Amino acid sequence: MKNSHLNTFKETSQRKRSSSGERNLMRYSAGGGRVSKTSSFTPQMIKLESIASVKMPLCTRGELHKLSQLELVCLEQGCSDQYKLICAYCRDTMHKNHDVRSIKYMLNELIKYLYDDETKNVMNDDIHKQFKHMIDCIKEIKEQLLILEQKIKDSEIKFQRDYIDPINRERSIVESLIKQISKGSNNQTSVNECLHNLFKYVKPTKDSFMIEKESQNFNIQSIEKQTMLFQGRLMKEIEQLSQTIKKTSQATNYNIMTFYSEEHEYLLEDKADTIILSRESDILHLEPITTKVLIKDYVSDVFVFELQKYKQLISFSIADIQKQFQNSDTIHRISQIIDRLPQSIEKLSISLAWDKDLLDEDILVLFQNINHSKFPYLKILDLDFGNSSLAISVLTDKSMIFLANSISSFQDSLWVLNLNLYCWGLSNIALTDKGVKTLVEGIGQLANLAKLYLNLFGWGEQKPEQISDRAVKELAQNIRELHNAQCIELDLGCWGEKNPSVTSKSLKYLSDMIDSLYFVKDLSLNLNYWANKNTKMLDTDIRQFFKSMMNWKHLQKLYLNIQDWEEISMVLKHELSQAVKVNLNNPNIKILIDNQ
């Protein structure tokens, strides 16, 4: 059995997840893989079956036509029968070389398009969401402008009070003293007294005299200049926003120009408002509104870079880039790409696979540009590193510091975090409780997180005692801080296998955690192999764990994997799982035990 599920690790680590959306349709299998949940019948299938069974009317054009159904339509420009039904004999005799299509095929294709969930979502939810986002931004700008307006008014009042009013008062005093001197010019004492008072307000210059307040460092031309600059910048920003909105309303997909050469070294450079990915003798040009760029290398696998600017979605994946490249070279290239992505993106998705060891320094370089300062509007962060499990044997707990710092920087903005570190402990003896503690402390700071997917399957597999009750305790304590979470998926498979450091206490930590997550509606927990050759998993404590599950009535969906718990009997597992299902009386409760 041991060799069997180790092989599963290796096979799974070589597969890439097709999209982050699969997580809503897939669940864990015994070996850390996934099994799909599919519907056997859909409205689309009903429509397609009805179209297939439709009998079209017979052609009335003549004796040779009358047995043929009108199953075709002519689309030829200039044809007298354009967009009209014709039969097969019509096609062969009167519509040779015309653009003739099957009416049923056309209807089938239109039905597929109409029932395509992705198309409906783009046409409805995503577009409305983006326009609403722009409206919200404008509202926020309006609020900021009102605050700015009030600050300008306050500055005007302060300027009047601190400068203009004192000058006017001094001008009045100086004017009065001048009149007194003029009237008392024959009285020396009176004139001396007036002069004495006058020089309290007058400052002599090299060639003239001026009122003291007006001699201070003040220049009306400076204010006029700053006002003009402010007005110019404000109008420029408004014009840029207007152009962006105009482009958004006209956004469409553009074809990508790709040119291939024999060169293999990838370079990255900027040009105007486009992103350029180039090799020495060829350029792949990404227009500002481009949907996807696909760079194929004839020697290695495929490099995919997607940019949907106005949907604010960025995702890219790398598979086995050039054997002669060091990982660090590729990591720096990826980091450069990330650094040049627009700040406005709301989703960032990265999938990596390596055939050489990653270093702690590589993790630092990769995540140095993934932070809130760089992406202040990021809502969804999808990191799939599960395919790197055979190439991280030299990573240490230090790498978790860099990863945690990146994640925790989004503490107020992130809504969804998908983090797949599947089997990072398969051949690693340097990732320990300390690394888990650092990672989950970063996750625990995500105050607005609504959905968490965390896959740490196989951690401690090389050296089981690396992962202990302390790691589970830290994980549970920090997950409890996610007060806004509604969906949590945790894959901790194999943590307890042959590992006396993971005891029944860990089940208690997890149970208490779930009890406190009142707002979580959907919970998935993979604990397979936990009680496999682990004598510290006691029957009494396992019974208590299942008993506590009966209090989880706040859950609308529960998925629990306890396959390969060889230390407890099959009868007991069936008994306990059935008791939970009966007590919760919820059809969405799924508990996986052996042979399921």
From TrEMBL:
Gene3D superfamilies: Ribonuclease Inhibitor. Coiled coil: none annotated. Residues 1-11 have a biased composition (Polar residues). It comes from the Eukaryota. Signal peptide: none annotated. SUPFAM superfamilies: B-box zinc-binding domain, RNI-like. InterPro entries: LRR_dom_sf. Residues 1-36 are annotated as: Disordered. This is Kinase domain protein. It comes from Tetrahymena thermophila (strain SB210).
